[in-house]
Give the backbone structure.
Amino acid sequence: MEMTEEAWRAEHEKLIGVMLCGDSLDVFDYFSRRIVDDTFLLYFNAHHEEVVVTLTGADEICWQLVLDTTTEEGFAENGASYNGGQELAVGARSLVLLQQRTGSDVEARATLHHRESKAKGTPAPGCTLSLSS
C-alpha cells in the first residue's frame, strides 16, 4: 500500500511501519541460487504517547517480538507472539521489531482484515515459538 501525499504531510501522524520481505530480495549467490531471508516488521514511533497498530498478515501468520526499545533489555528473549490482525501497542518514542515465524510471505503481506478486532497485546493461541532456529 502506498501512502498519499496528504498522509505524508499529516502533522499528527508520528508512527511509521516497514515490512522487510525476505522473499523480495533480487540477490543471487555465486551458483545463481536466489538468496532469501526472514521477513520482519519494524515500527518506529516518534510520538510522545503509545500508538496502537494492527499487525499485517492473515490469521495464520505468527509474528514474534524480537526487539522493543521501551524495555531495559531491548532484545526480547522468547518474545511474545501475535497473529496477523492483532493489535500491538508501540510505546512512546520507541522502535519495535517483529519476525515472521509461521505462514507464507504472501500471507504476511495480506493487509485486509475482515474480522472482529482481536485483543490488544494478547499472545496468539498456538503461536508460541522460541527465537532459536
In short: Helices lie at 5-9, 105-108. DSSP finds two helices and seven strands in the chain. The first helix runs from residue 5 to 9. Confidence is low (pLDDT under 50) at residues 113-123, 129-133.
